[in-house]
Amino acid sequence: MTYEEIFKSVVLAQNEFGSNSVCISLENELVFVDAGMNATIASEFRKNMEAKFGKKASTLILTHGHIDHFFGMGAFADLKVIAPTASKEKIERYVKAEFTKEIVASFEIYFPTFTEAAQVAKLFMPSVWFEDKMALGKNEEILIQTTGGHTNCSSSIYFKPEKVLIAGDLLQVEVSPYFGEPDNDLNKWIQTLKLWEKMSLDAYLPGHGPKINVDYLIKVREFFEQLL
Ligand SMILES: [Zn+2]
How far is the CA of 5 from the centre of ligand 1 (A)? Predict the structure, then answer.
């Protein structure tokens, strides 16, 4: 896992075999976005950030119900965990699942370190659900919004003070974007990217890969339009 300080209060952790995680430092607390796939790695990220900022973690936000984004959630079991209502069924399926050898092996095909991650995984249901919008922080510094696109529950997080958009898998950089499920909606996805283009930010943080700027975002949107 590599860490990059995006701005003073935002750190991006890139994960080779799971989703990225992001740490946002608010006045008195730390908010994490997505847990990645491995609870040990997520726990290390949390500890490092708590030491760096001298604050305790309070909240984990999940951007959507894909396993590579929440399989490491055990590292945040003592916190408030927020997820989109539309992701409830997806998350519940895995919380209730028994990860037999066969099932673990089938995930390993897509996620090469899944066996290791399964050994330390502790899944549980999030404690707070939001329908399509939610604000967090004393001055509502963090805005969470579900737009759909990559999945019907796909959500993003905007951190107002430093103008950073945390996109979940609505952005996947330096990889072929994954859009292989029935609840994928390319029209909604394109509409969301267009809204983000108008914001013209310097920092968009994807679910996988490095930070991008608005020029890269435009190319992604054009790719999806051609595909459609
Ligand atoms: Zn995803």
Answer: 23
